[in-house]
User: Fold this.
Amino acid sequence: MRKILIYLAGPDVFRPDAIAWGMQLKAFCTAAGAVGLYPLDNATQLDPAAIRAANLAMIERSDAVVANITPFRGPSADVGTVYELGYAAALNKLVIAYSADAVTDYAARVPSTSGEVGAARDCDGMLIEAFDPPLTDNLMLACGVAALLADAELAIRSAVAMLTEADYPMLNPASDR
Assistant:
């Protein structure tokens, strides 16, 4: 049986220790019985279009995407990561997310002009989506992942477990990708 391939999405590629952290994520995958595909595995070129194409090709080859959706440069997940998650979802890939802030209500992270639930607006007057129960990010992201967990290792182990369950149709052991 071939190894499960997991694309490791997130703004981690911008960390000062991005390569070392990517190696740690890949080690989590190996320990769980999978192969990690990290975006910086492609970073031999500086051409943005080539990097994008290489990362999308990795997503296409993967069985699942495990993504860091910790708020990045604002109240929500990294926009590039969200793009990758949408791409993976369109390909019917399993998507698991993790966040260092997996419990804070998204609406509470967005600066508002009113504390009134359901009617709060941001500084531009735009409605801030608020739901009951609260969501940890925009509804398309919060409702679009199979699970939201507190750390990368648990998310990777969960993805492998979901993909190896007999009743989960995502992975075909007879497939020879």
Residues 109-135 form one domain. Residues 169-177 have pLDDT under 50 and may be disordered. The chain has two domains: 4-101+136-164, 109-135.
